[in-house]
Amino acid sequence: MKKNENYNQETTKGMTIVVKKICQFMAPVIFLFGIYITFHGHLTPGGGFTGGVIMASAFILQILSNGSILERLRSEKWRLELTESIAIFCFLTLAVLGLVLTAYSVFFANFLDRGTFGQLVSGGIIPIGNIIIGVEVCAAISSIFIALLIFKDEEDEEESR
Amino acid sequence: MILFILCFILFMIGLYGVLIQRNLIKIIIGIAIMEYSVLFFLILIGYVEGGTVPIISEGFEQALFVDPLPQAMVLTAIVIGLATKALMLSVAIRLYKKYGSFDIREMKSLKG
Amino acid sequence: MIVLYIIVPLSAAFLTVIFGKWLPTLGKYLLNAALLFLTGLTLYLIIAGPEALIYRVGGFADVADVPIAIFLVIDGFTKILLLIVSLVGLLVAFYSVSYTKQYTGEEKFYALFSLMLAGMYGVIIAGDIFNLYVFLEIASIASYALVSFGIEKHQLEATFKYQVLGGVSSLIILTGIGFLYWGTGTLNLADIATQLPDHNIYNLFVSVLLIGGFGLKAAMFPFHSWLPDAHSSAPSPISAMLSGVLIKAVGIYVIIRLFFNVFALNYQIAVAITVLGTMSMIIGVLLAVGQWDFKRLLAYHSISQMGYVVLGVGIGMLLLTTGKDEKIAALAISGGLFHLINHSLFKGLLFLNAGSVEYRTGTRDLRKMGGLAKKMPVTAGSSFVASMSISGIPPFNGFFSKVIIIIAAVQAGFYWLALFAVLVSVITLASFTKVLKYGFSGKIHSQHEKIKEVPFSMSFSMTLLAVLCLVTSLLILPGVRQVFLTPAVDVLIETVQYSGTVVGL
Predict the structure, then answer these.
(1) A151 to B55: CB separation less than 8 angstroms, yes or no
(2) Average of pLDDT values for C259-287?
(3) Could you tell me which residues come within 8 angstroms of residue B78 by beta carbon, excluding any fewer than 6 positions away?
(4) What is the CATH number of the domain that holds B40?
(5) B75 in contact with A at a CB cutoff of 8 Å?
(6) Is residue B12 domain-resident?
(7) Residue B112 pLDDT greater than 60, yes or no
């Protein structure tokens, strides 16, 4: 009986089955496109921020279509914040590594081999920075969205009390 | 020139929204409109007549580029604007929760 | 070495968030340690000598004499600001150790605090105007979040007002930066100074945009309306940071730097700045007298005292543009900068006092206090020192800086300005006599019978700040002034020297 109730809650939340299914198909594709944009940041327009926003939009699409449960959002938000902080700390470390590793010791020094122009693996630390920024932005935007959702849901809770 | 005037008009529309509207969300929208007009202005500064995308790729090493620096500035300003507006919206939601309204005329706990 | 000012607070912020779940108290100690380190570093830099340090991020060399790297610059003037930020920040952070126990999610408070510090350090040491803008926004966004930290009604309302005005001012600044780039084709402050076109209307237009934008951030007179709300609603340590440091670092510092070292000195701008300073001095104090809310009164006094700083600097600027005696100009500017240091100390202290009173009694209304001197001797004593300082009673530091400004005004022939400065000082004294009378002397209220002195970390910070209020009077001595103030004044007097030292042209 209880299981059935849960099941009902799961299915009645969110939008209709058509939207859900379409989103289920689209979300991985969007996510993949975000990864593509992030990885080619040093060659084509785009980069960490743009790719990160696209990746986050895949998550947001899923949440919007499937609906959300407050408790799950809370735990998810904490995990996203942690990811975000770790990513940005990695970025800081990357910048500091330039200070430590290069002979002329400057902040943000490009200490890796720059490779040949136009190839995917080139540009020294720039692609690494792009990937870190992509993860960071993805986590940040998802957590902003989730935080706003939590604020709204808390409101409903208080009203129903 | 006409584009700069349009930018200015857009800025004024945003300012009108901030000054006249009484709804929190509409004030935020006004600020967003102002921000976009400033971003358009920055992009226009860097435009070069007949310039192309400022990306060096094979076959385009010596092409005439538009100025890439304002574009970098705009990207940074977009990120900053995102953070500012996210914070503003969350404050607006919290205010709605406290007062049950988005109307700034009903928020009078600060005076003097 | 310069980048440490950005790396250390940023890593403190992110480490605090990463380990916040498991070690909620880590943030406190990390922030205090970071600030202690940075204070030491700043003192070392000041003692080491007045030479300017220049740093190119990423190590990009100049291409055909055009600076393309992001510059970080530390010269005499920045060192003073760095010292204020580190010192007041350290004491406020130590004060917060006990104060924030009343909040949930303490670690977020410290993370935001570190972010705000990183933003302020960045604004101070940035050598190009767009990075300055980015750091300014980091500091502003962190301060918006901190003002609303307690999520009460009035805090949220103040935050919204602060955010709207702050957002508009940021956009005005961004427009000004756009026009600067349009006219000069560069963003580097030192390079802008050499590339500025000799076109008066263009210069005036950009100057008005930038004064408007940064004046809003500094809460100068016509743009002051957000400050009393935001500064009085914030948690008290944050009020101390906002009033004591933030409006100086992101407002006054940038205005002084831009109009001395970047733009050519201009008579109209000098007059405008002096008038704005005088107006905010007078209007601020008149609005403050009638207040009964302790923190709101202090916030209005911040506007007034910043007016003194701007007045001193403005007189110096006027004298330099009209080509009169450079010595008097130097005196006026050093008075302004001295008052800047003093204000951050005593206003920080006063806000911490207000925080202590609120922490124990739960009220900010002066009429509901009274007789607290017997129960909270440290708070009462330190607030007596700070009140005397702010109203310019010898031998506290406020007296000396005000006297320098007034002497400079008289010597320069601006008798009216000197008169206004004296009058405002008298009204300030009257207003703080009210605070001391209603707040700390007299009969104690019945519901406050059981209160006791605040915890150690709070009383220690307040005592140290009170001692500093006395010690900074020593800056008047020639030997000490030579080390701290003179390098800063030199940077401002030798207006064109800045681009010479930074870009090497």
Answers:
(1) no
(2) 88
(3) B39
(4) 1.10.287.3510
(5) yes
(6) yes
(7) no
